[in-house]
Amino acid sequence: MDIKQMTYFVEVVEHGGMTKASKHLYIAQPTISKAIKDLESELAMPLFDRSKRQLVLTDAGEVFYQKCKEILNLFNDLPKEINSLLGLETGHISIGLSAVMNMNQFIEILGEFHQRYPNVTYNLVENGGKMIESQLVNDEIDIGITTLPVDQAIFNSIPLYQEELRLVTHRNHALATRDSVNMKDLINEDFILFNEDFYLNDKIIEATKNAGYIPNTVSKISQWNFIENLLNAHLGISILPENIVKMLDSHFCNIPIDDKSMSWELGVVWKKDKYLSYATRQWIEFMSERL
User: Fold this and answer.
1) Which residue range or ranges hold the HTH lysR-type domain (predicted)?
2) Which of 97, 136, 187, 189 has the smallest number of CB atoms closer than 10 Å to its CB?
Protein backbone atom coordinates (compact mmCIF):
# COMPACT_ATOMS: atom_id res chain seq x y z
CA MET A 1 0.00 0.00 0.00
CA ASP A 2 1.10 3.57 -0.54
CA ILE A 3 0.13 7.14 0.31
CA LYS A 4 -1.91 7.53 -2.87
CA GLN A 5 -4.09 4.51 -2.06
CA MET A 6 -4.64 5.76 1.48
CA THR A 7 -5.60 9.19 0.12
CA TYR A 8 -8.18 7.66 -2.23
CA PHE A 9 -9.64 5.55 0.59
CA VAL A 10 -9.99 8.51 2.97
CA GLU A 11 -11.60 10.63 0.23
CA VAL A 12 -14.13 7.87 -0.50
CA VAL A 13 -15.08 7.65 3.19
CA GLU A 14 -15.30 11.40 3.71
CA HIS A 15 -17.28 12.07 0.51
CA GLY A 16 -19.64 9.14 1.05
CA GLY A 17 -18.80 7.27 -2.12
CA MET A 18 -16.47 6.78 -5.04
CA THR A 19 -18.37 9.04 -7.42
CA LYS A 20 -18.03 12.16 -5.28
CA ALA A 21 -14.45 11.23 -4.35
CA SER A 22 -13.46 10.89 -8.00
CA LYS A 23 -14.94 14.29 -8.81
CA HIS A 24 -13.15 15.90 -5.87
CA LEU A 25 -9.82 14.32 -6.83
CA TYR A 26 -10.34 14.78 -10.61
CA ILE A 27 -9.57 11.06 -11.03
CA ALA A 28 -11.56 8.43 -12.92
CA GLN A 29 -13.79 6.32 -10.68
CA PRO A 30 -12.30 2.98 -11.89
CA THR A 31 -8.88 4.15 -10.68
CA ILE A 32 -10.23 4.73 -7.18
CA SER A 33 -12.18 1.47 -7.26
CA LYS A 34 -9.07 -0.48 -8.19
CA ALA A 35 -7.06 1.23 -5.40
CA ILE A 36 -9.69 0.21 -2.82
CA LYS A 37 -9.76 -3.39 -4.09
CA ASP A 38 -5.95 -3.54 -3.98
CA LEU A 39 -6.00 -2.36 -0.37
CA GLU A 40 -8.60 -4.95 0.60
CA SER A 41 -6.60 -7.66 -1.17
CA GLU A 42 -3.41 -6.67 0.62
CA LEU A 43 -5.14 -6.49 4.00
CA ALA A 44 -7.06 -9.71 3.25
CA MET A 45 -10.33 -8.25 4.58
CA PRO A 46 -13.10 -5.99 3.33
CA LEU A 47 -13.02 -2.30 4.24
CA PHE A 48 -16.64 -1.58 3.23
CA ASP A 49 -19.84 -3.48 3.95
CA ARG A 50 -21.20 -3.82 0.43
CA SER A 51 -24.48 -5.39 1.60
CA LYS A 52 -25.73 -1.93 2.58
CA ARG A 53 -27.26 0.55 0.15
CA GLN A 54 -25.19 3.37 1.65
CA LEU A 55 -21.41 3.30 2.10
CA VAL A 56 -20.63 1.71 5.49
CA LEU A 57 -17.21 0.85 6.88
CA THR A 58 -16.54 -2.55 8.35
CA ASP A 59 -14.85 -2.74 11.75
CA ALA A 60 -11.52 -3.24 9.98
CA GLY A 61 -12.37 -0.35 7.65
CA GLU A 62 -13.02 1.97 10.60
CA VAL A 63 -9.66 1.15 12.18
CA PHE A 64 -7.89 1.49 8.83
CA TYR A 65 -9.59 4.84 8.20
CA GLN A 66 -8.40 6.29 11.53
CA LYS A 67 -4.85 5.05 10.95
CA CYS A 68 -4.84 6.38 7.40
CA LYS A 69 -5.83 9.83 8.68
CA GLU A 70 -2.96 9.76 11.19
CA ILE A 71 -0.46 8.70 8.52
CA LEU A 72 -1.69 11.30 6.02
CA ASN A 73 -1.54 14.05 8.65
CA LEU A 74 2.07 13.10 9.44
CA PHE A 75 2.90 12.95 5.74
CA ASN A 76 1.32 16.33 5.03
CA ASP A 77 3.04 17.94 8.04
CA LEU A 78 6.47 16.63 7.05
CA PRO A 79 7.45 19.62 4.86
CA LYS A 80 6.46 21.99 7.67
CA GLU A 81 8.53 20.01 10.17
CA ILE A 82 11.54 20.08 7.85
CA ASN A 83 11.13 23.80 7.30
CA SER A 84 10.92 24.28 11.06
CA LEU A 85 14.26 22.52 11.47
CA LEU A 86 15.85 24.60 8.73
CA GLY A 87 14.46 27.71 10.36
CA LEU A 88 15.75 26.44 13.69
CA GLU A 89 12.32 26.67 15.27
CA THR A 90 13.03 23.27 16.82
CA GLY A 91 15.81 20.70 17.16
CA HIS A 92 17.79 18.69 19.70
CA ILE A 93 21.53 18.68 20.40
CA SER A 94 23.40 16.09 22.47
CA ILE A 95 26.70 17.53 23.74
CA GLY A 96 29.57 15.87 25.60
CA LEU A 97 31.38 18.37 27.82
CA SER A 98 34.88 18.21 29.22
CA ALA A 99 34.75 18.22 33.01
CA VAL A 100 37.90 20.37 32.90
CA MET A 101 36.42 23.50 31.37
CA ASN A 102 34.77 26.67 32.59
CA MET A 103 31.20 25.41 32.75
CA ASN A 104 29.86 28.82 33.82
CA GLN A 105 31.11 30.37 30.61
CA PHE A 106 29.61 27.55 28.56
CA ILE A 107 26.21 27.83 30.28
CA GLU A 108 26.20 31.59 29.69
CA ILE A 109 26.73 31.05 25.96
CA LEU A 110 24.11 28.29 25.94
CA GLY A 111 21.68 30.71 27.55
CA GLU A 112 22.29 33.27 24.78
CA PHE A 113 21.69 30.59 22.15
CA HIS A 114 18.49 29.52 23.89
CA GLN A 115 17.20 33.09 23.89
CA ARG A 116 17.65 33.16 20.12
CA TYR A 117 16.32 29.63 19.50
CA PRO A 118 13.96 28.84 22.41
CA ASN A 119 12.58 25.57 20.95
CA VAL A 120 15.93 23.81 20.64
CA THR A 121 16.50 21.27 23.45
CA TYR A 122 19.75 19.84 24.82
CA ASN A 123 21.24 16.76 26.40
CA LEU A 124 24.44 17.66 28.29
CA VAL A 125 26.85 14.93 29.43
CA GLU A 126 30.01 15.74 31.41
CA ASN A 127 32.98 13.40 31.03
CA GLY A 128 36.69 13.05 30.40
CA GLY A 129 38.06 13.45 26.89
CA LYS A 130 38.57 9.74 26.29
CA MET A 131 34.98 8.94 27.26
CA ILE A 132 33.68 11.77 25.07
CA GLU A 133 35.54 10.35 22.08
CA SER A 134 34.07 6.91 22.78
CA GLN A 135 30.56 8.38 22.99
CA LEU A 136 31.08 10.14 19.67
CA VAL A 137 32.25 6.95 17.98
CA ASN A 138 29.20 5.08 19.33
CA ASP A 139 26.81 7.86 18.25
CA GLU A 140 25.72 8.47 21.84
CA ILE A 141 26.32 12.23 21.46
CA ASP A 142 26.35 14.60 18.48
CA ILE A 143 29.37 16.74 19.38
CA GLY A 144 31.96 16.94 22.13
CA ILE A 145 33.96 19.76 23.66
CA THR A 146 37.28 18.22 24.58
CA THR A 147 41.05 18.34 24.32
CA LEU A 148 42.77 18.78 20.97
CA PRO A 149 44.35 17.30 18.96
CA VAL A 150 42.16 14.30 18.15
CA ASP A 151 42.56 11.49 15.64
CA GLN A 152 41.87 13.23 12.32
CA ALA A 153 41.09 9.89 10.68
CA ILE A 154 38.06 9.51 12.97
CA PHE A 155 37.02 13.05 13.95
CA ASN A 156 36.50 16.52 12.58
CA SER A 157 37.32 19.36 14.94
CA ILE A 158 37.27 23.14 15.32
CA PRO A 159 39.60 24.79 17.88
CA LEU A 160 37.95 27.00 20.49
CA TYR A 161 40.72 28.33 22.73
CA GLN A 162 44.14 27.59 24.22
CA GLU A 163 45.15 28.10 27.82
CA GLU A 164 48.05 27.54 30.17
CA LEU A 165 48.06 24.90 32.89
CA ARG A 166 48.92 26.23 36.33
CA LEU A 167 50.18 24.69 39.53
CA VAL A 168 47.54 25.10 42.22
CA THR A 169 48.32 24.91 45.94
CA HIS A 170 46.77 25.95 49.20
CA ARG A 171 47.94 29.44 50.14
CA ASN A 172 49.84 27.95 53.12
CA HIS A 173 51.82 25.53 50.97
CA ALA A 174 55.60 25.97 50.78
CA LEU A 175 55.44 26.64 47.02
CA ALA A 176 52.72 29.28 47.32
CA THR A 177 55.18 32.19 47.35
CA ARG A 178 57.04 31.13 44.22
CA ASP A 179 56.78 33.27 41.07
CA SER A 180 57.12 30.15 38.91
CA VAL A 181 58.09 26.48 39.14
CA ASN A 182 59.29 23.78 36.79
CA MET A 183 58.22 20.15 36.84
CA LYS A 184 61.42 19.04 38.60
CA ASP A 185 60.49 21.26 41.56
CA LEU A 186 57.46 19.03 42.15
CA ILE A 187 59.30 15.71 42.49
CA ASN A 188 58.55 15.35 46.20
CA GLU A 189 54.97 16.62 46.07
CA ASP A 190 51.72 14.65 46.42
CA PHE A 191 49.57 15.03 43.31
CA ILE A 192 45.80 15.25 43.07
CA LEU A 193 44.93 14.31 39.49
CA PHE A 194 41.96 13.61 37.29
CA ASN A 195 41.36 9.95 36.52
CA GLU A 196 42.50 8.01 33.46
CA ASP A 197 39.48 9.11 31.38
CA PHE A 198 41.09 12.55 31.11
CA TYR A 199 43.86 13.52 28.70
CA LEU A 200 44.99 16.07 31.31
CA ASN A 201 46.06 13.11 33.47
CA ASP A 202 48.21 11.77 30.62
CA LYS A 203 49.74 15.18 29.95
CA ILE A 204 50.79 15.73 33.58
CA ILE A 205 52.22 12.23 33.98
CA GLU A 206 54.16 12.58 30.72
CA ALA A 207 55.59 15.91 31.90
CA THR A 208 56.73 14.42 35.22
CA LYS A 209 58.35 11.47 33.44
CA ASN A 210 60.21 13.90 31.21
CA ALA A 211 61.41 15.58 34.41
CA GLY A 212 62.74 12.24 35.68
CA TYR A 213 60.08 10.93 38.05
CA ILE A 214 56.62 9.38 38.34
CA PRO A 215 54.24 11.54 40.40
CA ASN A 216 53.11 10.35 43.80
CA THR A 217 49.36 10.41 43.20
CA VAL A 218 47.30 10.55 46.38
CA SER A 219 43.91 10.87 44.69
CA LYS A 220 42.26 10.62 41.27
CA ILE A 221 38.88 12.23 40.72
CA SER A 222 36.46 13.17 37.93
CA GLN A 223 35.20 16.61 39.06
CA TRP A 224 37.45 19.64 39.45
CA ASN A 225 35.51 20.96 42.44
CA PHE A 226 36.53 17.79 44.33
CA ILE A 227 40.13 18.77 43.69
CA GLU A 228 39.35 22.11 45.30
CA ASN A 229 38.08 20.32 48.41
CA LEU A 230 41.14 18.06 48.56
CA LEU A 231 43.51 21.00 48.17
CA ASN A 232 41.69 22.77 50.96
CA ALA A 233 42.28 19.70 53.14
CA HIS A 234 46.05 19.95 52.40
CA LEU A 235 46.18 16.58 50.64
CA GLY A 236 48.58 17.81 47.99
CA ILE A 237 48.96 19.93 44.85
CA SER A 238 47.22 19.90 41.50
CA ILE A 239 47.67 21.23 37.97
CA LEU A 240 44.61 22.84 36.39
CA PRO A 241 43.70 24.94 33.34
CA GLU A 242 43.63 28.73 33.75
CA ASN A 243 39.87 28.95 33.29
CA ILE A 244 39.33 26.58 36.20
CA VAL A 245 41.94 28.35 38.32
CA LYS A 246 40.02 31.62 37.94
CA MET A 247 37.01 29.99 39.56
CA LEU A 248 38.85 28.98 42.74
CA ASP A 249 38.48 31.02 45.90
CA SER A 250 41.15 32.98 47.75
CA HIS A 251 42.36 29.97 49.76
CA PHE A 252 44.46 28.89 46.79
CA CYS A 253 47.46 30.14 44.87
CA ASN A 254 48.20 29.43 41.23
CA ILE A 255 51.74 29.49 39.92
CA PRO A 256 53.02 29.51 36.32
CA ILE A 257 54.86 26.35 35.27
CA ASP A 258 58.07 26.81 33.30
CA ASP A 259 57.36 24.01 30.84
CA LYS A 260 56.15 24.50 27.26
CA SER A 261 54.14 21.29 27.40
CA MET A 262 51.99 22.66 30.22
CA SER A 263 49.28 24.13 28.01
CA TRP A 264 46.31 22.66 26.21
CA GLU A 265 43.65 23.44 23.64
CA LEU A 266 39.92 22.78 23.73
CA GLY A 267 37.82 22.35 20.64
CA VAL A 268 34.52 21.10 19.24
CA VAL A 269 34.79 17.53 17.97
CA TRP A 270 32.42 15.32 15.99
CA LYS A 271 32.66 12.00 14.16
CA LYS A 272 33.61 12.12 10.51
CA ASP A 273 30.82 11.38 8.03
CA LYS A 274 28.18 11.88 10.75
CA TYR A 275 25.19 13.97 9.76
CA LEU A 276 24.92 17.08 11.92
CA SER A 277 21.48 18.64 12.24
CA TYR A 278 20.98 22.27 11.32
CA ALA A 279 20.58 23.13 15.01
CA THR A 280 23.90 21.43 15.84
CA ARG A 281 25.75 23.24 13.05
CA GLN A 282 24.32 26.58 14.17
CA TRP A 283 25.33 25.85 17.76
CA ILE A 284 28.93 25.09 16.73
CA GLU A 285 29.13 28.35 14.80
CA PHE A 286 27.52 30.32 17.62
CA MET A 287 29.88 28.88 20.26
CA SER A 288 32.98 29.34 18.09
CA GLU A 289 32.23 33.06 17.82
CA ARG A 290 32.01 33.50 21.59
CA LEU A 291 34.76 31.32 23.05
Assistant:
1) 1-58
2) 187
Q: 91-160+266-290 and 162-263 share one CATH topology?
A: yes
pLDDT for residue 96: 95
Cβ-in-10-Å burial (0-12, 13-18, 19+) of 205 comes to middle
Whether the CB-CB separation of 80 and 70 falls below 8 Å is answered with no
Torsion of CA 173, 175, 176, 181, to 10 degrees: -150
pLDDT at site 85: 61
**Which has the closest alpha carbon to 200: 252, 258, 242?**
242
- Report the pLDDT value the prediction gives residue 192, as an integer from 0 to 100: 94
Burial class (CB in 10 A: 0-12, 13-18, 19+), 247: middle
Q: Please state which CATH class domain 3-86 belongs to.
A: mainly alpha
Q: Which fold has domain 91-160+266-290?
A: D-Maltodextrin-Binding Protein; domain 2 (3.40.190)
Task: Going from the first residue of the chain to its last (291 residues), give the mean pLDDT of each consecutive group of 10, the final group possibly shorter.
Answer: 91 90 89 92 91 86 92 80 64 90 85 90 92 93 93 93 94 93 96 92 95 95 82 91 85 92 92 86 87 73
CA angle 221, 225, 226 (to 5 degrees): 40
What pLDDT is recorded for position 86?
A: 64
Query: Within 13 Å and on the Cβ side, how many CA atoms surround 115?
Result: 7
Phi-psi region of 281 (alpha: psi -120 to 50; beta: other; left: phi over 0): alpha
* CB-based contact 282:85 (threshold 8 Å): no
